[in-house]
Amino acid sequence: MNTERLKTLCNSFGVSSGEQAAAKILRESCKPLCDELKYDRLGSVFAVKKSKNPKAATLMIASPLDEVGLMISEVKKDGTLAFIPLESIALSSLLHQRVRILTREDTFIDGVIGMDKKALEDSCEIKSAEDLFITCGLSGDEAKERIHPGDLAGYAGTFGEQDGTVIAKALFPRVLNEVILELLEKLKDTELDFHLAAGGVAQSVIGYRGTKTATYVIRPDAAIALTAFDTAKRKVQLGDKVILGYYDRQMLPAQALLRDFAGQTETKEYFGLLGNDGSFIHKTLKGTPSISVGIAVDHLGSANEICKVSDADALTDALASYLRTLDSEKIMGFGMGDGHG
After folding, report:
1. Cβ(206)–Cβ(86) under 8 Å?
2. Which domains does the chain carry?
């Protein structure tokens, strides 16, 4: 894994609808590795490696591009900032965290999350986001001049790597963006019998908004959705290498594709409830045969997510090996009905 590039990706700002910095890194890194770049109007970026087969099928490999974050909802007279979380973040994990606010002038203002004094005295329990606020060291007038409701805020964590373990903010999805780039590097000189479209989906972790739009742009015949599997419930753990989703509340994977991938790749089975990009890719267009594949990530959704470099490398190698076994006929056979065997 290119940990220096991963560090650059993790340190970039990429809260949903403000992914431009992360998208630029992905876009510039993909350019020399593909034949064409494709975008949707929300900011998704996909590198397309074209096949010489005139009847080539298209395989989509998608990773999220955005990260969890906050939106400023009010600038108060005392200069403190009220906010709403843009995703289901554990509120207790936010207290005393450093954040970066992206202003309308494309500049950053650093702040720290504090707790309302009354809520602190009453119970020391955070019951809602209204019990929290952001302070930036600005007076009320300064804050109102520079920060506005609707401005986005993201974690300001520090990237660290030691003995094959990475700790960083936005590690999910950035480690999966890095997997995409390493996969394209491995396949750069490989002739495929199908078109490969691999990239990042904007506004994915916040309601999967870009997942449908990106799928309409790519129009895949089958898809592999890259995701992070939470270690919190101890169904998976760091070091499990390649994890394959067998069920979630929003998607039943395409059985032919699932069996084919599992039959050629050593995987850890995952049965859970949380959806991923595949949950929406598979029910877009006429229906897109899809599976979800990924690695374990600890402290998911926090300012200090953790993963193993060896897990990410195993995922990259598994994807590269598997793609070399595919051809257009096989991809078309993963579905049922019109246009499939």
Report:
1. yes
2. 3-67+169-332 (3.40.630.10), 70-155 (2.40.30.40)
pLDDT tens-digit readout, 246-289 = 988 788 899 999 999 999 999 999 998 777 888 888 878 888 99
Alpha-carbon distance of 70 to 16, in angstroms, equals 9
Dihedral angle of Cα 39, 42, 43, 48, to the nearest 10 degrees: -20
Measured CA to CA, the distance from residue 302 to residue 40 in angstroms comes to: 28
Cα gap 104→209, rounded to integer Å: 23
Write down the pTM of the prediction. Answer: 0.93
Dihedral of alpha carbons 161, 166, 167, 171, sign: positive
DSSP per position, 63-93: EE--B--EEEEEE-TTS-EEEEESS---GGG
**pLDDT tens, position by position, 101-120:** 999 999 999 999 999 877 66
Which region holds residue 86: left if phi is over 0, alpha if psi is between -120 and 50, else beta? alpha
| DSSP sequence for 218-263 | H--SEEEEEEEEE-TTSSS-TT--SEEEEEBTTBPPPHHHHHHHHH
Which of 121-142 are b and which e, b meaning 16 or more Cβ less than 10 Å from the residue's Cβ?
eeeeebeebebbbbebebeeee
For 122, residues 6+ apart whose C-beta sits below 8 A from its C-beta are: none
* 325 phi/psi in degrees, rounded to 5: -90, -10
Question: C-alpha distances in angstroms, 106 versus 111, 155, 212?
Answer: 16, 16, 28
The DSSP element (H or E) to which 281 belongs, if any, is: helix 278-281
Nearest CA-CA partner of 214 in 279, 284, 275: 284
Is there a contact between 71 and 152 (Cβ–Cβ < 8 Å)?
A: yes
Contact status, residue 146 vs residue 66, Cβ threshold 8 Å: no
Burial class (CB in 10 A: 0-12, 13-18, 19+), 68: buried
